[in-house]
Each structure stands twice: as structure tokens, then as C-alpha cells.
Structure prediction request, 1098 residues.
Amino acid sequence: MSEAHAELGFWRKYVFSTDHKTIGIQYGLSALCFLFFGFCLIMLARWQLAYPGQPIPILGRFLPETWVDQGAMLPDFYNQLGAMHGTIMVFMGIVPLAVGAFGNFVVPLQIGAPDMAFPRLNMMSYQAFFIGGVVMITSFFLPGGAASSGWTSYAPLADIATIGQTFWLFGMVFLIASSLLGAINFIVTIVHLRAEGMTFFRLPFFVWSQLVTAFLLLLAFPALNAAAVLQLMDRLAGTSFFLPSGLVVGGEQAAAAGGGSPLLWQHLFWFLAHPEVYVLILPGMGIIAEVIANNTRKPLWGYRTMVYSLLVLGFLSFGVWAHHMFLTGMGTTMSTFFQTTTMIISIPSVIILSCLVISLWGGSIRFTVPMLFALAFLPMFGIGGLTGLPLGLTIPDVYLHDSFYVIGHFHYIVAPGTIFALFAGIYHWFPKITGRSMNATLGKIHFWPSLLFMNGVFMPMMFEGMAGVSRRLFDPTVYAHGAGAHGLTVISSWSAWGLALAQIPFIINFFWSMRKQERAQENPWQATTLEWSTPTPPPHGNFLVPPVVYRGPYEYSAPGATGDFFPQYVK
Amino acid sequence: MNKRLVPILAFLILLLGCSREEGGGQPSPPSGGDAEKPAASTGDAMAPASGGGKPWDPAAGTATVKGTVKFVGKPPQARGIDMAGADAKCAELHGGERLKPEAVVVNDNGTLRHVFVWVKTGAEGWSFPPPEGEAVLNQKGCMYEPHVQGMRVGQSLSVKTSDPTAHNVHGYGKTNRSFNRSQPPGAADVVMTMKRDEASPPMKVKCDIHPWMNAFIAVVPHPYYAVTGADGSFELAKLPPGTYTIQVWHEQYETIDQTVTVGDGETSTLEFTYPEKS
Amino acid sequence: MSEPHYGWWLPPNVSAHGAEIDAMLNAMHWFMLALFVGWSIFIVYCLVRFRQRPGHTAVYQPIKAAFSKWLEVGVAVVEAVLLIGIAVPVWAKIKNEFPQQDPLVVRVVAEQFKWLFHYPGKDGKLGKTAVEFYNDANPAGLDPDDEAGVDDITVRGFHFPVGRPVIAVLSAKDVIHSFKMPVMRVTQDVIPGLEIPIWFEAKDTGKFQLGCAQLCGLGHYEMKADLIIESPEDFQRWLDAEHEALGLE
Prediction:
């Protein structure tokens, strides 16, 4: 199956490659860089939160006058940091890593395909992502700075903001194009290119999660794409899709046609952004499922239930978006509808988590580094999911909306949730991608402080939110209740800086392991899924002979098998 | 494969090239922040000569136009500015007393204050030496001082803050670049050069944090401008003999133009009346 | 009176409907804590009992855990109770049952970056306002030809009397803001182009703060106002003092 090609030159092999594995690595490295950059942005902002008005140590004197005054951060720069941190982490960090990197590299291997269905489209998808990323980063250097209206870019604020917002919109158009191209590719690949014997219910849960994620991206992103174009037109072409009549800005009547609606932007944005949060978590759940099955040496409990829950979750995710808009003046009918769907959608979510937890029962649990991250994912995602309950009901939401409670809620899901799952994936698949194993001791030194500091950053935010502190405030101590909760802010900030230090063992491990002499075995985790049957690293075309699948994906400790695992591909 | 990148890159380059000037015509001038700064903070050495004509000859400036701006009738109702509820530090600076807004200030002698008076046409033939010093806008007691001022094209404007509370000076330039700069208490002066004519109307400056604060700055290519004070009078001195259009501008009302011809050594007196009878 | 205490949990509640909100918030957190502790105990138990060690192997089809189904059903029932029993009816009350008896009607205008509170004067009528009248000397946008507006009071701090329902009509001049009074447990987005009425009633007096809870630009953090809830007599005294300050003949 590995095709005989003429040897490709450097550019065709490493830069303009159509091989899903190379593209996956490109996505992975770019996304990790953007994640690091996005993290640096918020570490800077956390100084201002913990020590408002104090000059930033070391860096303060090097930053330009429009960002700092005598070293102390200025409010506009703080808003830029906030908006770009969110945008970069979600659209340039997590999604490209979870879907573009892991999805691209692992899915064709796990289904027994030689590559994605549309390899050239795959390459263009990466290039669009890269261009979008460059546009976003360069916006910091514009006069007026980067976008500063939140990652949510609500109109009319975003309509009248500086040119950084225009770049944000163009950047989003490229990033969305990248995701749409990728989504089509994933769906066609998973439906059409499965190996012989790979029925849908023999697919690893990771592939199911990528399939549902691809549908979410495909169907939800067009709404934001359209909204971004409309907002661009409001900003550049004099339209008023989101500008109501009678705006008075800075004491002057705004020179806009009027007649538009700011709420239209919110609906279009959240129609994407709610499914987007499931895009952020589902691949992570997929990774966790693989790692737990592998390290408990038994099948997942409730695999079919989990798959059905995944499908229901994906479907329902399109019907809950306005729970982000409860306080916009919504009446009883709309709010009842969206509260109901929001409560219902928590059920499949809890089912998936419960199945993963119950999968531990009766296992033989190996505490490998991937498993440590996977185990930590369970309670962390649990906290994130639980704290969604008060936000999903109108009455508690009246108080908690747009407070630090919301920030704590979604970060618990994305940070010690998805990012931990992505770390688990990196440690788990590193031997397959590079042919070397990552050092387990460094992995544990990475894990424990990360877990501690993740909680140190985000648990105080729950309390801050209950204390009434709003989000996106350059200086929360302007309010007495903000000053009263200031101790929590300081704890969060120091934990964030500690969290950064805790990543150093990971970075060292990552690069140092790649260059080790000692090669890993072909299947170091004794796993059952197809990707472990290829040579390491897999050649172009992946499989030496077309694989045939004989059984389900998690036949660990199966009766009648020799050894404690029975790979899918062995007769 | 490279070929497919070319249209994408070309599009990006087009995009960068077409990025809008600050202060463009969309809903409201976006908050800029890119105002130019001269290399040295004192403006005089750097400000160029302004005006398009022949170099100024002081001996030519012998005439004067002076006058008053009267106000007839009842001024519009003006409520005292309540600072206390919004920013206690501002209120403390005034001992709790409420200042009157500066929009329509009628002096005791029935004249109008804060009117900007300038030579609109007639001085184009000259090129004037650069002004000395810089124009100053001070944030004091959560109000701008002065409320209305004129400055020269090419002169630098220094925005100072003397207040214990944060301000944000936001200039809405229509020909000059808009600017939007935060100044926490004790912040350094923000210094910018105004490079283009902007007198009809003058540039509006607002504080984003305290919405009652506003000021107007007219940028003029010649030195013939004044602002009426507590007696409602103005004087434009050292004019060369000739015919001039004198314009008065007030923030709430339409501009009024009057034409006057002055001979060598003459003084002409004009009177303007607001509000204008329509 | 003593300074309100602001700590690491809910601030003091001075609102008549605040008790319901606080009860729901506290009850939900106990429920969430119970679920989390339960789950965590189960996980830790599994990690200890089923850890890999010599002589221990995994079981291919372990005992079916039927209790998880009951747990799911239990969670769903609790959610249903919270939704149908509390959230929906209380929201309906907040949205639909506006006070009829002698409410104080105040117009609240949000602009970048301060609030403005517009009270009717002695005539009890709010003057007409329109967008074309907004300027820096007339931040409330009052129509100068409307007699009813001459005695209106426009201030930047929010005063209202305890024990009397207040209807606040919220509008924004420029971008989306959000009117949040933490001690009153009130939050409402203020959207340009819309006039959104809300109502509330205080049960205690005091001096607090209100702020903006939706990012509205670089001055968002500073968009605060004093919130002064006073006895009806003090409130009337304040209104009279404001009327004096207008200097009408």
C-alpha cells in the first residue's frame, strides 16, 4: 500500500506536503506555538490584575507607549490581551491541535486508510490556517493595536473599534475556511476510507469524536463566517447590519445608516460559538477514551452508549446557543426553550463522563503519564461541567453572567480538561509519530505541578464570580466587592505563573526526546488500535499491506486471547 | 503548489495596502492612538513654517480686527455637572460643588464665551514662521483647560494630567489623525504634532472616562486666531492690509462669517450675535 | 451604618427578590458539591482497588453497574425541578409582573463610560427625550421645548428609596453595556436601539456601587456609579436638594 513515489524535494516533503502525517505535524507545531503565545498574553494581563497600576517587571520598559505608561499597562492594551488570548487559544491553539494535528495524524491510521480523502484540500486547509494565524498576530503591530472587543466581538463596539478588529475579521475568515475544508475531508474520509472489516461500531471512540466534531464545524462555522463578512461590511462599506438607528458616539451622532440590530450579531456568533465549545471538548474526550481503555487493560464501559450520547450531544448542541444571551432582554418563551435544551444537553455529557469513570471499575490501572493526565481530566471536566448548571438556568445566571464564574467554568473544561487531554495525546502518540518515547519522569514532573496550578488559577475564579466580580475589567479593585475579592486574583495570577514554569519540563522533554538515540518499540503501550500496526514512523501510504479488521477497538483482557490485549488487525 | 499561494498572498497585500486611515468616514472615528510625536518634546525646533505663500514680513502687519460676540436671549437650560456619583475623586476636587457645563457660557456683559474666532480667508499669501512652544491641554479637576483653543499647523500639543484619577484623552480628528491615549494618575504627558488644518470645525477632544469633559482644538495655518474670554471680546492684530473673511465658531451653533477690509494701520471693529436669526 | 462586607462569596443582599436567587445559588452549589464528592470518591476507590499489581488482572466484562442509570435519572430529575419549579416561574415574575402600585420610574442611560440617571421632577413626569438632542451639555437628551423636562433631575449616581418598587428603563447611546447591581442581584444588558424596563425593590438601606457588566471599550472598568438606597424621607430630601440645585425660579 505504500506507494512508490519519486523522492520529493525538501519543500514538497516538509512544507507543501499533502501527506496527512506531515500536515498533522505542521498543525501540531504551529498550534503549540500559538498556544504558548496566547498563554504569554494572559500572563502579562494577570500582572495587571494582581497588581493594578504597577509597572510590569522586566518587560515594562521595553513595551511601546501605546501599551504601557511608564511600564504600567494601559486599559486598551489590557483589552487587546484579553480579546486576543481568547481568539488565539480557541481558534489557533486548541482546534488546530485537537482536530488539525491529532485528527489529521491519527484518524486515517486508526481507520486503516492510506491518507485523507482529499490530500490537496488538506494542505490548503493548513495554509489557510497559517495565513489566518499570521493575520491575527500581525494585528498587534497596527496603529490602534489588535482587536480589543473580546473574542466575542459584540456589535456595535466591534463595529466602531480600531483597525485591529478588521484584521481579526479577515483572520477569522481564513481560519474558518481552514476548518470548513478540514471538516469535509474528515467526514468523507471516515465514511469512505475505512479498511475492510472496520464497521462503524468497531471504530475507536476517538474517530467517532472527530466525526461528530467535523459535522459541528461544517454546519456551525458558516454562521460566523457570514457574520464576519457582515461586520466587515459595516466597518468598511457603510452598511448597518448590526448598527441600530440613533447611535451617539462620543457625543456626536454616528454617521451610520442605522436600522440594524446588535442582537443579530450575537445570535449568529453564538450559533457557531456554542457548537464550537463542543468542538473544543469532543476530540479531548476521544483521546481520553483511548488512553483509559489502553491503561485499564479492559474495554470501555458503555462504548455504544457513549457513541449514541456523542451523536445526541452533537445534534443538541445546535439548539442551546441563546443561553449565552439570557440577559439581553429575553422574555419567558425563549428563555424557557433554551434553558430546557441546555438542561437536556447536560445529560449526554454526563453520560459520557460517567462511562469513562465507570470504565475504571474492574480494570488493571497503569499509571503511565498519559493515564495521569486522563485521570485528572475526569474530575476537572466534572467541575467544569457542573459549574455550567447555574449558568444554564436563568435565575442564577442573572447574577453570574459575565462574571469570573463564567471564566472559571469554561476554563476548567478547556484548560485542565481539553489541554490535559491533548497532553495525554502527545505523550501517548509521541512514540508513533517520532519513533521515540518521552521521558516518564519528566512527564510526572510536568503533570503534578500542572494539576496543582490549574486548580490554583481557576478555582479562585469561581469564588470571585460569586463575589460579584465581572470579567474583562482592567482593574477590578475599582469596585469595593472587587477589592474584597482581590486576594483571589493574586492567587490566580501566581498560579498562572507557576503553571508556566511547570511547562518547562514538558518543553524540554518534547524536544530532547525527539533527538534521543534509543528508539521506541512499534507498540510501546500494547494497544489494540490500527495505528500501532504500522512501522514507526509510518511511511507514505501508512500500511505495508492493506489492513483487515477482525474485532472491536478495545479487546483488552479478552477471554481466549493470548496476552492481555487482542489487536483489531490480528486474525 | 506554490501557484495556489500567490493569489492568497496577493489578496493579503491588497488588504494591508487598503487599511483605512484613522478618522475615516465610518460610523464614528475609530479610537486611534497613532498620533505622531516629534523627536524632541519641545515643539519649536521641529515645527515647520506654515502657510503656503511668501515668507512673512513683520513690517507688513499693521492692521487690527477686533470685536465682540454677543449673546441675545435666554441661554439654554444647563444642569450642573454631577461628578460625585460617577467619580468621587473628581467631585472632591471641587469640594462637592457642581460646575456648570461649558457649552453655552454667557458672560455678565451679555457676550458669549468660548467662541473661536479666526481668519478664514485672506492670509493665504503668507508663510509664517513656526510658533514658539507647544499648545497645552490640561486635565484638571476632571475638566479640560482650556475648553477651546487654537494652535498652529505643525505645532505640538502636549496633554497633561494633574488629576488623581485616570483619564483617557480621545481626539476625534477629521483631517488630523485621531488619537486615544490613557493617562493614569501621574502619567507622562502625551505629546503629538498636529500636521493639518482643522479649524472649521475644530477637532473635538473628549475624555472617554468622564463623558462631561470635552475640549475643542482648532489647528490653523497662520497666527490670526483668538478665543473669546470672560468679556466676550477678541483681537486679531498685526494683519497685513487687505480683505479678510473672519469666521466665528461655537460648539452649539452654526458658524458666522463676516468680511472686512482693513487698510494700512487701520483697526476695524466687528460684532457677531448668537444665536443667529434664521 | 456599618460598611458592607465584601469577601470571597456572595455580597450582602439588600434586594427583596435576592433571597430567592441566593437560595437557588447556594442550593445548586451543595448539589454540585455532592455530585463531585461522590464521583471523586468513586474514582479514588477505583484507582486504589484496581491499580495494576502482581496477581491482579483486569476483568473483561465487569459487573454491570446499574446504579449509574439511577444516578443519571436522579440528576435529570433534580435539573427538572430546578428548571420547572424555580427558574421558569421566578423568571416569569421578574419579566412580566411589573409593580403597579406607585413605582418610582427612573430612566437609566448608559454611555461610554458613565451612567446617567434621569428622574422626573416635581411634576412627576419625565420630559421627552430624543437622540437628536444629545450633546455634552444635555447628556440626557431632553427636548428643550418640552415643559415637562425643565424640572427633571439628571445625575450620575443612583438614589432610590427602600421598600418602594423601582422601574428602571434602560437605554444605551453607543454600544452594549450591562447594568449590574451586585447587592440587588440585578443584571440587565443595555442594548442600543432598545429600551428595556426592569424592576426591583430594596429591603435595606446603604451605600453601594453599581457597574457595567458587558465589555464596552477601554473605559469599561471605570464605568461605575454610586448606588444609594435610603429611607423615603432621606430620598425626598435628596430630590428636594437636587431640585434646588437646578436653580429654577
User: Anything to note?
Assistant: The two ends of chain C are 37 Å apart (CA to CA). DSSP finds three helices and ten strands in chain C. The first strand of chain C starts at residue 104 and ends at 111.
